[in-house]
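Course assignment 3, question 2. Fill in each field.
Student: A.L.
Task: Predict the tertiary structure for the chain below.
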Amino acid sequence: MARTLKDALVEFVSIDGVKTAAILGRDGFVIESAGSLELDTDALGAAVAGVLEASEALGRSLPTGNLERHILEFADGTVIIATARDDVLVLIVEANAVVGGVRYAVKKNVDHLAELL
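Answer field:
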């Protein structure tokens, strides 16, 4: 099991098809990241904060409970956003990856990740 936040993110990136893993504050501030994609982390943080706010507002308007994961599928890849206590895990995944396996890894490891924050 990972001992540092960076190690935990590197473990996510070691999953086949996961290109980037990042931990963000709910305000969009990037706390830590790992992976092979070169990204504008400020733009990523701002976009994720907006998506998260809209998704949580939708959840509050429905009897569905708190947001746990948000999966966005695009033509060239998938973005998985998962809550980790007060922060957010973001994974950027290749289009041909087995998303179910990535989702399982998120569900299995997000609590440990939150403990490292």
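Instructor remarks: The radius of gyration is 13 Å. The first helix runs from residue 5 to 13.
Grade: pending
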